[in-house]
Design brief:
By secondary structure, this protein is mostly helical. Helix content is 64%, strand content 0%.
């Protein structure tokens, strides 16, 4: 009777890295640092407040006649509101599409891993055990599937730094996260990023080649191999959508006009409020500028959701959770193949 294996793993649970792990200490209304856009809107709010101070001072102590009719505010606010709504809807659509595309990639990796490990159990119809070469081939392709997640993440962040074929990452220092990523790549892999070939697409070629070999070994029947290819195509398609988001900014004409209209509205507002509110126009303009520039700042952060900002997609955690799942499946598959798996395991 084979004794049960004792696993030594870090304490974890599904989605442990992607989910928020600690409760909020302060209500969101009192938060001014982590996750907030106050840092990027502070300068324009201060400038508009100082401009309002100047207008009120000139109106009260110099010219005495700088006020404009308040009816000008509603007409301008409609234009500003429409532009900000368009900007935020467009930016959030990019964020949501990026998140769904990453989910599609993770789902494809899960499906392919499941199909590969369940099917790669025997050779042909006679049930011949896998050779060491076939076992290593299967383990390599599962690691490549996980490496695709890392490659997608790094390419979207413009971190093109695949190690050379020797496995040494050049002159730069290798971080722990990068070392885990490099360990997933096949030995001797040569990158072609300097020639315009992205590593994610290059790694999918290795997976497609394995599917063909599995079909020739009778591990996969025709429809199953075809479905696995569909999963791989879905993965590449999802990555293409993420690339489109990353490489297609909003038209510069829209950005310029939005900035100008926003600045114009906040510059006109002091003239429309100085007669009725006097020095109270300063905090009023500051609040309006804080609100409008804050909405615009949110759109700026969501426009490219693949970076390291607090409001970006949690790509590091999502990739780590998927890696943990796949590697546990791979460990169980290897244990079952070596006869060390506990009775009733996944691959019995």
């Amino acid at each position: 009777m084979t004794p049960a294996r004792h696993h030594t793993r870090r304490p974890t649970y599904p989605l442990a890295h992607a989910a928020r792990q600690k409760p909020r200490r302060w209500p969101l209304v009192l938060r001014f640092a982590k996750g907030a856009v106050h840092g990027i809107i502070l300068v324009p709010v201060i400038l508009h407040s100082l401009f309002t101070v100047l207008i009120v001072y000139l109106d009260r102590h110099v010219t005495g006649n700088l006020g404009l009719p308040t009816s000008i505010v509603p007409s301008l606010s409609i234009v500003v509101g429409l532009m900000l709504v368009f900007r935020n809807q467009t930016s959030y659509d990019r964020f949501w599409t990026g998140r769904n595309s990453l989910a599609t990639i993770g789902t494809s990796v899960r499906n392919l891993t499941r199909s590969i490990l369940v099917s790669a159990r025997s050779k042909g119809v006679n049930g011949t055990p896998l050779t060491d070469r076939e076992t290593a081939d299967t383990e390599k392709v599962v690691r490549v599937l996980v490496a695709i997640l890392y490659a997608v993440k790094h390419n979207l962040r413009a971190e093109y730094n695949i190690p050379p074929a020797s496995g040494i990452a050049g002159e730069g220092e290798i971080t722990t996260a990068k070392a885990e990523y490099y360990a997933l790549l096949p030995d001797g892999l040569r990158g072609f990023e300097d020639q315009g070939l992205g590593l994610p697409l290059q790694l999918t070629v290795l997976v497609e080649s394995y599917i063909r070999r599995g079909f020739e070994r009778s591990w996969f029947h025709g429809p199953q191999a075809s479905q696995m290819t569909v999963q791989l195509n879905n993965l590449v398609d999802a990555y293409g959508r993420m690339e489109t988001i990353r490489t297609t900014p909003l038209p510069v004409a829209h950005l310029i006009h939005q900035k100008q209209v926003l600045a114009l509205f906040n510059c006109v507002l002091p003239f429309a409020t100085v007669d009725d509110f006097g020095w109270w126009a300063v905090p009023i303009v500051a609040i309006v500028a804080f609100t409008l520039y804050g909405i615009e700042g949110i759109g700026v952060q969501l426009e490219d959701p693949f970076g390291y900002d607090k409001n970006d997609i949690k790509m590091d955690g999502i990739v780590e959770d998927t890696r943990q799942e796949v590697m546990v499946l791979l460990d169980e598959w290897k244990a079952a193949g070596s006869g060390n798996g506990a009775h009733g395991g996944m691959f019995d």
